[in-house]
Write a structure and sequence with these properties.
With 204 residues, this protein is mainly beta. The protein is built from 2 helices and 17 strands. Helices cover 13% and strands 48% of the residues. The strands form 5 sheets. Strands 9, 10, 11, 12, 13, 14, 15 and 16 form an 8-stranded antiparallel beta sheet that branches. A 3-stranded antiparallel beta sheet has the order 7-8-17. It has a two-stranded antiparallel ribbon with strand order 1-2. A hairpin with a 4-residue loop joins strand 1 and strand 2.
Length: 204
């Protein structure tokens, strides 16, 4: 299991279980407790009706500073690292995923290279060969981000890491980290990361 220490944060790749949350369906002032994806038979205005509450396959994660779409099976967690720093995480069971750190009183642009070095150093130490493929990405809203990219290879296994930052205002900003550990034909991580980049919109 890999871990990522940074100047101000520490996270580990873990599997998180999400308990199903009971919901309340209100019909003409009468409330019914329901669960997602379960069919209920209710009498509405004297008529027997089937009711099914379900999620969309693709959901929108919305923050005050950014938003992006994700598959409903990819759960998102948020945590407060310290005062002024919020961390948003979305990972697959294989360890691929997206990490966003939101800084409210610090511009994280200077952390990009350090963050990239931190996430790859364990693999490099193990023997992975690294190739840098930095590039510029244009988001759907026209914003351009400089992305640091490292592709690591070891005996046919490939790991891809990306780090980007965005500073909308002085002394605040966002740090994006993507980690793709897919190998042997598994594409879940690549699909998750691709959907995030394709639908990411930043709020100045």
């Amino acid at each position: 299991m890999k871990t990522l220490p940074t100047l101000i944060a520490y996270f580990s790749f873990v599997l998180i279980s999400f308990a199903q949350t009971d919901l309340i369906l209100s019909v003409d002032g009468e409330e019914f407790e329901v669960n997602l994806n379960e069919t209920y038979h209710l009498k509405i205005n004297g008529k027997d009706s089937e009711v099914l509450l379900k999620e969309k396959d693709t959901l929108l994660f919305k923050d005050s500073k950014f938003k992006f779409k994700h598959i409903k099976n990819h759960k998102i967690t948020q945590s407060k690292i310290e005062e002024g720093v919020i961390q948003i995480m979305m990972f697959t069971a294989m360890g691929s995923g997206v990490l966003v750190q939101k800084y409210e009183s610090f511009d994280p642009n200077m952390l990009k290279e350090m963050m990239l070095n931190e996430v790859i150093k364990e693999s490099v130490s193990y023997g992975y060969k690294m190739k840098r493929e930095d590039y510029e990405k244009e988001l759907s809203d026209g914003v351009k981000l400089k992305v640091l990219k490292a592709v690591l290879e070891y005996k046919g296994e490939i790991e891809t890491y990306e780090v980007a930052s965005y500073s909308g205002k002085r002394d605040e900003g966002l740090l994006f980290v993507t980690i793709n550990l897919d190998s042997m034909g598994e594409e879940e991580g690549a699909d998750m990361i691709g959907l995030m980049w394709d639908t990411l919109i930043l709020v100045p």
